[in-house]
Amino acid sequence: MSVVYGERGLSDMEFWKFLCRIEKNMIFLLLHDFGVKNRSREPDFYCRILKFSEEDKQKFLELCEKYSIWKITDDYPEWLIKRFRDKILDTLASIKQNIRDANEVYPYYESEFYERRKYQDDAIRGCGELYDIFTLCKDTMPVDADRYEKFVNAIEHEADLLKGWRKSDNRILKQIRKREAKEMHNGFKIIKKMFRDETLITYMHNLESVITFIREYLNSMATTLNKG
Q1: What percent of the chain has pLDDT over 70?
Q2: Does domain 1-36+83-171 have CATH number 2.30.30.50?
Q3: What is residue 2's predicted lDDT score, i.e. its pLDDT?
């Protein structure tokens, strides 16, 4: 059974502290709708794009001039911003939970080592998903590309930190295998000693006699039943 290794505080680990900084900065970004730059255009632009008739164009431009509308701002689709926002927050939460789950498993058996390793792998995989989301945001939304590039680089660095943490666990696996090999060796020694014990040899001899008697009795009963 795995046990909680209470001596290791996540708050002291670099990969955890760095992830928390990333999360904080991302939340600030999401609060401002990804820093999307809404586009402002002159009224004449919409006349061309929407192919207004000359009559409608004249009326539209007159209304804009009457109400001092010199620029019209396009809002970016809210559904896409919400989709990206939810995906980023869910992925961040998943990464943090996998790290917590891995940190709560201090392996004593090899199976527990691989249980912990799975959580670590899932956290690293989450960084890859987060990287893909931010790359897509940078490529599809009117945002500051340089600012997003910093986030992408930070996510890559976090993945490297997690890989370093995972690699450092190899020593735990070596310790487990060394201990299990020692326990197996000690077990063989105990069994060998037992077979040297005359008392055990006598017991085994008597047990064999009992088994022989039972076998002969059952054979005798079977023969009697067959005759009947």
Answers
A1: 71
A2: no
A3: 43
